[in-house]
Structures are given as C-alpha cells and as structure tokens.
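Listing S7. Sequence submitted for prediction.
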Amino acid sequence: MKNTFFFFTISLFVLALSCKKSDNPNPINNPPQITSEYWVQAEFDGVSKNIELGKNQFGLSSGNSGDIELPICKYDYQSCLQQTELVGTEFEYKEAICIEFIKLYNDTCDQEWENFADLFVPQTFTYSPNYDTPGIYILYNDENKKLFSTRLGAQSSSSFSITASSSLDPDIFGKYSQKVEGEFSCTLYDDQGGKIEITNGKFSLLYTPS
C-alpha cells in the first residue's frame, strides 16, 4: 500500500524588531550586505532584494514530505524564509520564498539518514513541472500575498545549481541537517498571467532529513 505523508518542522524561527529607516538608504539595486547565515538574494524584475533570517520579521522553516512504497521512500525537501506579523494574538504569514527539491531521495527508507549529505553535493538541476517529476520547485509569496511559482509556466532558459554544502552537528535524534548554498535563475508565474523574472539568484538555506 502506498502511504503519502507530510512532515514539517520549524527548524529556526526568529522575529526581528523593525529598525528605524536610515537617513541615507542604499540605492534600490545595491542592497545592504548580507549578515545572516540563511538568506536568499536575487534580482526581481531587475530590482535587487535580500531576504534574510532575522531581519524584517523573517523566520526560517525546513521540512520534508514524501511517498512510501516499502521498502522504497521518495522524499521532497523544502526550506523557506517566511515573514511573519503578529495580528491580534496570532502570527500571520506575509512575504515568503521557498526552495524545494522534489523527489531528491528515491531509495530504501532506512538509508536516508546515512546518505542525506550526499544528496546535496554540488550539481545542477532542472525545474520540476509537478510533484511526480524530480527537480526544483520555487514558491514565492510577494508583499501583497500574491502567490507565484516556477510550476505555472515555462522554464526553458532557467538554471539552478548547488555550489556548496556542509553538514551541521546532529540533533538529539542523530540527524545531520545540511546547510546548502547555490545559484539560480527562473521565471515565477501567478495564476492570472503575471510573472516575475528572477536573475542572479543566490541562496543559503537549511535542509533536514525525515
């Protein structure tokens, strides 16, 4: 029997207090230097943007989902930077960007932890058109909460590569998460025909095993 599940953990969550605007802000295409460990930097339709953990209420979450047909497991791995705002007594998600590796692991279930670091060695990827096809899926929620993704249109001239990866200290269960860095370009589409061209993209994100 095939079992489908979703597992999501908040790996890190940081809320940063809003800072007073500088009297001399940086030009729009010259964003401040990145100081966080986890971040995404890219040009959105030619305008540079830094999304960083701990700045402007951005937190980091990582998780995984997958299909199990014993003894084989097929796992997807996701990492997101999400901006949150306290509305009343609840946190509300605003701007967010997620980079997901679809069906990156496809092997016996009991070998995933042992082989996790090897999944993220430097390599190139294509973009995944659906949840059954291995590759990359990028999801972006803009400042107005409009959803864009790589899955809603062509990615013929897009690119994605891992440039570096390192294992972190194991957690209490003995799992080794990975800090993954890379470069990318793509086109993000909404469901009404709008699009955003992403160029000169770079990232540093956290990925965790099941």
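Caption to Listing S7: primary sequence and predicted structure tokens for the chain studied. DSSP finds one helix and twelve strands in the chain. The radius of gyration is 17 Å.
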